[in-house]
Amino acid sequence: MNWEIPLFILPQNAIVKKQPNFLFHMVQISMKRMNLEIPLFILPQNAIVKKQPNFLFHMVQISMKRMNFGRTALHIAAEHNRKETAELLISHGANVNEKDNFGRTALHIAAEHNSKETAKLLISHGANVNEKDELGNTALHIAAECNSKETAELLISHGANVNEKDNFGRTALHIAAECNSKETAKLLISHGANVNEKDELGNTALHIAAECNSKETAELLISHGANVNEKDNFGRTALHIAAECNSKETAKLLISHGANVNEKDELGNTALHIAAECNSKETAKLLISHGANVNEKDELGNTALHIAAECNSKETAELLISHGANVNEKDNFGRTALHIAAECNSKETAELLISHGANVNEKDNFGRTALHYAVKNKSKEIVELLISHGANINEKDELGNTALRKAAIFNSKKTAELLISHGANINEKDEYGNTC
């Protein structure tokens, strides 16, 4: 532990007769260090406060820092809403705008702990309501995070900027949405918070609410004009975000207020693609029931089924197939979902695809079958699966490579042995006359 910070000990024989409440105040602002309650301010043994009634306050050094967090006594008083103690400290010179090691003033701390009375006192003595910490948070950001509605109201009434942004471009409304602080969000909106304001990533408060499944706050935002189809810097709407986080209830709310279920992001992903990627089956089901196109393609030609195969999202893949997803649909490279499953060693999804008619010998644009992909990635189990369902072991790609030659190229001994045991021709030549 770092003991460089000076602590002044008050011995039992030091009785401050002229200030009977002093010890009480000091105990109130005690701190916990290493699970032990240690008084913050300690008076040296040789200090007898008789001739200098203010000596204690000078010795305390009101701007003294606590541990390595840099907090002053005023920060501690704000944390515990000790208004009288804070008043006492301020009257003896405590700096109301002093910052701790994270750039937070006592007002930030008061907002965090909803210490309204102490916050009011600090403001009355010149605390800057729009002062920022090292992350750019004002006290209002902190109040929104902790749903400290009363303190937030006080801050706003004294000039706090409701649209002030932190270092990441987030307003207090973004923070309220993240923490589902509905009451504070309502307060912010009533005082002019822009519901469609974006952070540095282009997220509106509605994007954040969708990410955190803050349905109540999302509902509030929409009722005050939040654009349900607004896009972030990556072209994602709140519905994309809800699908990613499997926020089914929020997704349902967004759709009921006009969210486009087939809207694409910059990579061509619909919310259904995202749901497939994250195996958000319930959200995927909701999207499909509201018209999501199960065969819609992204910029690379992937359907949601391709994505499900890549991520081995078997349950979502099953849902997609049951609603008409084409198991043999190809991407821009000619790959079916089975090619992808083989490449990613998604055995369960591969089994599902085959059971629903996936062609095990379908070729991509380079003449490769799923077996070529499985061998390349040394997916022995999928190799066995494909062979057991009729995969042609000696099928060649455009360069004349069989699966066995691929196994040799990638030094996959076990896979090679498996192929040979099922009749792979070890003398088969490629386009250049090379054998294994």
From TrEMBL:
ANK repeats lie at residues 69-101, 102-134, 135-167, 168-200, 201-233, 234-266, 267-299, 300-332, 333-365, 366-398, 399-431. InterPro entries: Ank_repeat_dom-contain_49, Ankyrin_rpt, Ankyrin_rpt-contain_sf. Keywords: ANK repeat, Repeat. The keyword Repeat applies. PROSITE patterns: ANK_REP_REGION (PS50297), ANK_REPEAT (PS50088). Pfam families: Ank (PF00023), Ank_2 (PF12796), Ank_5 (PF13857). Signal peptide: none annotated. PANTHER family: CYCLIN-DEPENDENT KINASE INHIBITOR 2C-RELATED, POLY [ADP-RIBOSE] POLYMERASE TANKYRASE. This is Ankyrin repeat protein, putative. It comes from Trichomonas vaginalis (strain ATCC PRA-98 / G3).
